Amino acid sequence: MNMKNTLSPLKIVAVLLILAGGVLAQGEPRTVESSFEVTLSLVAGSNDSSQKGDLPASLAPIAKQLRSTFGFTNLRLADTYVGRIGNMGNIAYKSIANIDGGSQSSTPSFLDWQISDLRNAANAANTVFINSFRFGARVPVVVGPSANNTPIQYENIGLTVDRMTSAINSPILIGTVALPKADGGRVFLVLNVNPVSN
User: Fold this and answer.
1) For residue 148, what is the DSSP state?
2) Is the pLDDT of residue 20 over 90?
3) Quick one: 45 exposed, middle or buried, by C-beta within 10 A (0-12, 13-18, 19+)?
4) Which residue has the higher pLDDT, 24 or 135?
5) Selection from 119, 111, 115 nearest residue 91 by Cα
6) Residue ranges per structural domain of the chain
7) N or C: which end of the chain has fewer CB within 10 A?
8) Residues 140-161 pLDDT 10s
9) pTM, two decimal places
């Protein structure tokens, strides 16, 4: 029997289907995930003149709001935390901090914050939806005088917010946390979300 190198109609159809599938796959648009840079600023407010400091220009609208609402004479940037997150993503952060302005070496504070399920808002342009925001800190509290040293006890403070929106590229005040200080100082949690290129 003479074997010829011929293509049967079935083989021709199979080859055409494979080639057509490859061409169609190349033409499909690829979805690029959005990414965001989240910045959490801790702004400390007090009436203690030794706690004076400057705030960046980007926080000027927040500073005006805080002064008019809370009446603190001094506002300072206690710390800033930056992270990158994808659309529908989560970010968690833990660190040693100095949110009360004291000496960090002797009695540091420990903080952690988390954003869960940050995504583009479905019905609003230039807005993101955050399913959950949590901020917590363990701060030193003086519990009484002692002859040799000052006894310190750590207490938990924090704030949890479920389901919120935020305008893109516009700092917003999320909430306040009272500090265990005699002058009634507070920490203000300010969040800013900016889109970033991939």
Assistant:
1) S
2) no
3) buried
4) 135
5) 115
6) 35-196
7) N
8) 887 777 666 778 889 899 999 9
9) 0.77
